[in-house]
Amino acid sequence: MIKKITKVTLCIILVVFAFSLLMAWRLDVFVKIDEKKPSSCEAIELFGSAEDIEIDYLNGTAYLSILDRKGLIQGKDVQGSIGRIDLNNMPWEIESVFSGEGLDNFRPHGLSIYENTLVAINHPKDRGEDPESIETFSISGKGIAHDKTLISPLLESPNDLVLVAEDKLYIGNDSMFNSNINSFEKIQQQLGRPYSTIVFYDGADMSIAAKNLASVSGLNMTKEGYIIASETNAKRIRVLKQLDDGKLKKLGAISLEGSPDNISVSGDEIIVAQVASVSSLIQHFISLQNGDYKPSPSKLESLVFESDKADYVRKREIMFLSLGEDISTASVGAQWDDKLLIGSITDDKIYVCQLGE
To answer: Containing domain of residue 278, as a range?
Structure first.
């Protein structure tokens, strides 16, 4: 009897140990950060963090999703704005082009641009209870004007979105606030189990375009028209083909070492921000809740996309990798000429680096 109990106890210990090692690996506990950064970088201070940056390459304008996310983590009632930079006019200055006027609440997240249309994800104050929305804007020489608000039960936990036409877009749910997932399923989700969806808006209605994705935190479209989606919990970028009815067909994936966030596209280059250490990110959020500050590593990788290659990548290069003491929790990178603009989840600034030096 004692031998049986000993064997059972040993088995339990081994299972717990193996699971602990798996979780430690999933959370990047053993990751070593070897910094690689351009030699010349400078910060532009903000009244909040720019979680997403979208560049209008035709007009040389950058739009920023600005919100006091540190205050949000600490439970403050915060309101956000959309900022704009005229990239053709040096030195760069950030102006506010929308402060939420006309809306009861404005807490922007992901952004996307198509010609003269800008869209932004807007989170409610009580996430998981009140409806999420998409705010649409018209762009003009004077700035941006709010057009309409899109709401649907399919917007469970929207994180990012991409316009594919002026009135058509895809929205990625990251499942973070999905009330249909129980506690055990949330653990499985963190282990990479796919519970996320991508929603398609056709100009009138919303429908599910793709299912079974591992937490969609970034969306964009390649120059060939493929939709690329960050599957954060699976450490990969999913490549999908648009079908005539708006549905998305899974084609393959690009493997990454980090957990991907926002994706920027310029020509055949993809710049993907990645969480290099999930455990450090968790510690960063905990420190902010406690009124302290502990930086989390930042990572940006450039991928040259090639649809004919088996892994879809012709070339890859680390553009920026730091321990986070210069800019923490990088969530987006976008390139304009020889400059790299870096936005953060929580740091109240953007970081601009000179490339090629």
So the answer is: 39-354
